[in-house]
Amino acid sequence: MIQMKQPEDAPHAFQTAWNNHDMQSFGALFHEDATFVNRFGHYVRGVGEIVKLHAPIHATIYSDSILENELIDVVAISDDAAVMHFWSRLAVGEAHPAGPHAVDTVILAVLTRQATEWRIKALENVTLTNPRTGEAVLRAGRDS
């Protein structure tokens, strides 16, 4: 399992679990009662539901996907709580019905510490889109 010793570990831990398509490790990043909103606005509560949301897509359309995360900032709320933002680029391959392509999102996560380990309490993922057309856009200055 991937351990998060500080909030800044979350983007890499999330990326590692995703890229290994390891739903047990992915679920372990979250508190049991965590909430998750995916990039399509689907809300689930509880680590079991978070894994249930992700397991089928990792077995099919995202089975060859690669995620690359980049920390934007961490704001401490207390010694045991923090709000974090990070960029996330999802590159999907041939397994996706639309074929290979990339999607950029920004993730907002609330993390809390229990004992010495940090876990995600809430996470929301937002796809970058053109507000006039609704088309997905990639962040400027990034390799496509």
UniProtKB/TrEMBL annotation:
<feature type="domain" description="DUF4440">
    <location>
        <begin position="13"/>
        <end position="120"/>
    </location>
</feature>
<dbReference type="InterPro" id="IPR027843">
    <property type="entry name" value="DUF4440"/>
</dbReference>
<dbReference type="Pfam" id="PF14534">
    <property type="entry name" value="DUF4440"/>
</dbReference>
<protein>
    <recommendedName>
        <fullName>DUF4440 domain-containing protein</fullName>
    </recommendedName>
</protein>
<dbReference type="InterPro" id="IPR032710">
    <property type="entry name" value="NTF2-like_dom_sf"/>
</dbReference>
<dbReference type="InterPro" id="IPR011944">
    <property type="entry name" value="Steroid_delta5-4_isomerase"/>
</dbReference>
